[in-house]
């Protein structure tokens, strides 16, 4: 099929690429150590999630950290962090150990989702042909979408069961946030709380606005959009394009992306992250091919989360965290907050927070603030630091002085629709 591009310009040594990815991951994780967590134990291992003796071996690559303090025998609910599309555990190198420091006596897990990172890469086509979608009673979305979500949801549930864990606190970045919600829909009894970091697929697309933008765009841009939509529908992914290039050209593109996108990192970290990104995304394609079943062009979900999150049966509520110059629209989180407040009263169990000086990759662009806010939300929220920005749909400022006025366009610092009072 076209999504595989049908060729690779040079022979590839999958084992060598895999081991290179492990080496870069190790460098990144060690770089995340500081004087505060230097002696903290970190375990890196693979969890077998194979089903039955006659199936191929599948595993979830896992990093586990815990900051054991005092003589406390009981542990708090573990936190499981799910990465974004095309990323992996390596992108969490500034978060895992610091979060363990902030959340003592609580296990912190970073996972490579099935078909990504250093986890196994089963065939997506075979899965589609041999797997039935869950019954409608378990999934509120159409069968094709539900089946694509099940690829990740079911593998996460097998991982949880294999680890002998009970309830989880789920934190997910971008696609990982979307999948955390899908898991909580299917297994509400397993989820205590959800923290969504710049999640993809929350709001409904503004179709009319998009049509007007495309209509007024130059011809070559309109042709580009049509081309992208065509290939997207066929399942072509950015990673399949990367694999189709000579290694030297692909590595140069990745280096340029990482070095320009994450200028705040040290040169050593940028080198390791670029090598890691290149390695995990030149391994055989797998989980990436589900994306066109879940998302439309433009990162809008076919089954938007704004319609799904308010119906979750998660006792601890939901927290949204966006960067102050995030390309993911904070309005999605605000819409969810408004619906939950209207239906449940009070704050509705939904909080929307903002990380200053960060974009979509907030966990790398301002890790200190991101980690602090995650820890507060995991612990129940409500412990804002002076100067925090909290976005709300109300016409009154909260204690930090930040307010997002419903239905108004207010020119302010950072994003349209915010102001200081």
TrEMBL record:
GO terms for biological process: lipid homeostasis; phosphatidic acid biosynthetic process. Pfam families: Abhydrolase_1. Signal peptide: none annotated. InterPro entries: AB_hydrolase_1, AB_hydrolase_fold. GO terms for molecular function: carboxylic ester hydrolase activity; lysophosphatidic acid acyltransferase activity. Residues 78-207 form the AB hydrolase-1 domain. Belongs to the peptidase S33 family. ABHD4/ABHD5 subfamily. PANTHER family: PUMMELIG, ISOFORM A (PTHR42886:SF29), RE40534P-RELATED (PTHR42886). This is AB hydrolase-1 domain-containing protein. It comes from Triparma columacea.
């Amino acid at each position: 099929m076209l999504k595989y591009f049908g060729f690779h310009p040079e022979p590839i040594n999958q084992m060598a690429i895999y081991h290179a990815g492990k080496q870069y991951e190790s460098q990144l994780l060690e770089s995340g150590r500081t004087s505060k967590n230097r002696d903290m134990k970190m375990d890196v291992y693979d969890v077998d999630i194979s089903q039955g003796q006659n199936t191929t071996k599948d595993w979830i690559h896992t990093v586990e950290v815990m900051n054991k303090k005092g003589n406390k025998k009981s542990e708090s609910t573990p936190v499981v962090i799910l990465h974004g599309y095309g990323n992996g555990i390596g992108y969490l190198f500034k978060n895992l150990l610091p979060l363990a420091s902030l959340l003592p006596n609580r296990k912190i897990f970073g996972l490579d989702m099935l078909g990504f990172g250093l986890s196994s890469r089963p065939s997506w086509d075979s899965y589609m042909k041999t797997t039935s979608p869950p019954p409608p009673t378990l999934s509120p979305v159409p069968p094709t979408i539900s089946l694509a979500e099940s690829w990740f949801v079911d593998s996460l549930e097998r991982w949880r069961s294999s680890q002998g864990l009970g309830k989880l606190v789920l934190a997910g970045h971008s696609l990982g946030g979307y999948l955390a919600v899908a898991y909580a829909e299917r297994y509400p009894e397993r989820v205590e709380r959800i923290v969504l970091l710049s999640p993809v697929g929350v709001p409904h697309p503004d179709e009319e606005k998009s049509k007007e933008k495309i209509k007024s765009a130059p011809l070559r841009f309109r042709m580009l959009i049509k081309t992208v939509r065509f290939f997207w529908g066929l399942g072509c992914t950015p990673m399949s394009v990367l694999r189709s290039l000579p290694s030297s050209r692909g590595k140069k593109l990745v280096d340029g992306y990482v070095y320009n996108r994450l200028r705040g990192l040290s040169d050593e970290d940028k080198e390791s992250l670029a090598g890691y990104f290149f390695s995990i995304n030149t391994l055989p394609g797998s989980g990436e091919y589900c994306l066109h079943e879940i998302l439309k062009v433009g990162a809008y979900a076919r089954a938007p989360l704004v319609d799904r999150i308010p119906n979750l049966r998660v006792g601890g509520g939901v927290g949204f965290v966006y960067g102050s110059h995030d390309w993911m629209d904070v309005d999605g989180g605000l819409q969810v907050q408004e619906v939950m407040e209207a239906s449940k009263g009070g704050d509705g169990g939904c909080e929307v927070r903002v990380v200053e000086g960060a974009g979509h990759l907030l966990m790398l662009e301002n890790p200190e603030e991101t980690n602090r806010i995650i820890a507060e939300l995991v612990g129940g929220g409500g412990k804002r630091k002076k100067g925090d920005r909290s976005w709300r749909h109300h016409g009154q400022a909260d204690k930090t002085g930040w307010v997002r006025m419903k239905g108004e366009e207010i020119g302010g610092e950072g994003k349209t629709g915010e102001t200081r009072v």
